[in-house]
Amino acid sequence: MPIEIPKDKWPGSVQTVTLGATAAEGGTRTKTVTVGGQTSMPFMHFEAPAPHPPVVAIEIKSKRPEDWSPLLAETWGEAMDAPAKWAAKAQEAGADLLVLALTLNDTPESAVAATKAVLSASGLPLIVFGPGQVEKDNELLVAVAEAAKGEKIGLGICEDKNYRTIVATALANGHVVTARAPMDVNLSKQLNILITDMGLPLDRILMDPTTGALGYGMEYGYSVMERLRLAALQGDRMTQLPMIVTVGFEAWKAKEAKVGEGVPAAWGDWKRRAIHWETITAMALIESGADILVLRHPESVALIKAAIAELIPA
Amino acid sequence: MYIIGENIHILSDKVKEALANRDREFFMEMAIKQVEAGAKAVDINLGPRKKDWDEVFPWIVETVETVVDVPLAIDTTNVDGMEAALKTIKKAQPILNSTSAEPERLEKVPLLAKKYGAKMIALTMGSEGIPVEAEARVNIAIETLIPRALEVGLPIEDLIIDPLVLTVSGCQQYCPHLIEAVRMLQYAWDPAPNISVGLSNVSNAVPNANRPLINRVYLAMLMGVGLQMMIANPLDEKQNDVIRWIETKDTSNPLGRVYNKIADRIAAGEEPQVEDFDLSDPEQAAIWKTTQILLNKVIYADGYLNQ
Questions:
Q1: What value of ipTM does the predicted structure carry?
Q2: Is the preceding peptide bond at B98 cis, omega within 30 degrees of 0?
């Protein structure tokens, strides 16, 4: 019996956002990354093919992180001591773009130095995240935005407490902002309204809906993202932004990924478990509409990129 | 519309202060104002008063009954306080506000209502919290609240079901379900139980400037499905306009037409349509946007009117 697959046709579409600027566009990137543009729910190719599949960013830090899992230290080795080396190694590992995460110990000078080092070492588009403390983020990101003028980098974290400063510097220096709200559709949308009210066009905003790792609230993040994406496709302009999720940050906080000793033997091989924790979290979130996955382990990157390739029809 | 005036509420700083000073004049004036504005009953929510209930509840009842004759709704979780109020009330048939379907409250409050011949508001909320689906709320009424009223011998006419309004800011998906719950409850029993809602809950956590508009539009929708009783601010004149326009089917002015249209659409099981509104009129455009928020068509954000 022939079965007719029901198809949804949506009135709205996701905004496209491009990160990075090549020499021709006033920057020094060797490539740019464009996300968004979907007119259907994730991977519903039979309804409407997505013009831009999800991409993978690798997160590197401005200073060697002391609190990261030994598994990550083992794989990145000495590169973790120098953002330039780390950036080059991340590019080799298959990153589509890079996320440079600054720390509370950074000064505007060290943040600018790290940003410049990464921009020289790799031609990939870049997103720079502050340490997540409003005042420190403002201090560091304004300096970084000015130093990277023309490169069209992403600036985060832009939240309700500091969006004015971050949006102003993004406007002045031609960058993109990543708008983060705490896992709440109403607050995500409100922040997007506030940011666009300042005059930043929609094609320069990514939204970070905040997520949790597998076992740590992932389903809440999933539902929020799904709801935002459904609203976007229904035509709600202020939810039509591509979504970035910090999967590595969340997954490697989980005990199951972070800890190798003192856990039940039934949990199995630590490295395998940890990489799966990151990969499965990422996998679930691309199904709910994530456009940019920020990951930490190169093997997770390889696994998720293979999975994305498989999900896209030839 | 039978309005139970909500203004004597301990969350108000003025009420808190007046209570601390046992300011009889303040409470008398508040009661009179509400009744003069059309309130058919006056809600009294001074909190549980765990330490001084045996003094406060009789005091407030005596104070308010000095100046108004309408029923008082005794709004507290303190059952001893409720009883102290009931013993003092001399005028109209009081309303107990409220019981839920949680076993402990459902055990005690209906017995009090029966003993003192009071009406009783019963919330469609069990021990597991508030159910999302309209059907689940109606089921709590049919399976738990109404049987308990019958069991203690409380006439259905004295039972008031409150299917629980939740805020559009954070619980937006519940807003359409509540409308359907109000519609369905009227067919849930013969005779139909009374239905009341706490209207302004729909705009909890919404910036103050937008609250009255959200309340009014939701009210029009709820009147469309037959709501005849609510706990609300009787002094809100624009809200009273909406009630009057819909009750008298007054379409002689643009806003009256729009609010009646909303009520008619919802009554017919339809959704308001953009062509029902003259979007060149900013007030009507705001009402249209508010219908979309309340029906969960567009995600709520504090700045939704500017979108």
A1: 0.78
A2: yes
